[in-house]
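This entry is passed on directly below:
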Amino acid sequence: MSTSRLVYSTGTGRVCPECGRPLAECRCKRSKPAQPVAPKGDGIVRVGRETKGRRGKGVTVISGVPLAGEALEELATRLKKRCGSGGTVDGGVIEIQGDHRDTLVAELGKLGYTVKRSGG
C-alpha cells in the first residue's frame, strides 16, 4: 500500500490529494473555495412575506438581488439597520424579521434596484 495517496491523518487532518499538504497549507487551485457568483435572474428584486416553517412568525423575504458574498451581506446589514430588526442571508435570499415590505421596497428603490412586491 502506497502512502502517497494519504487522504486523512490524525496528525495533520485532511490532506490535499494533489500536493499532499494539509488543506490549511495547500496552495493548489483545487482546494481553494470558489468565489460566490451572483444569481442570474430577470433583474427584478422581489420583496415578499413568508411564515412557512417559522411557527407563524412572519419574515420579509428579499430575493433576486444581483449580489453575492460580502456585498449581499453588506446590503442585508444595511436593510436590517433601516428596519431596526434582525435577519439573515440564506442561500442568496435576505430574510428580515417582521413585516417591513413597504420600507424595504422604498429603500431598495432608492438604491437603484427594480423592485416588485410579491405575494399577498
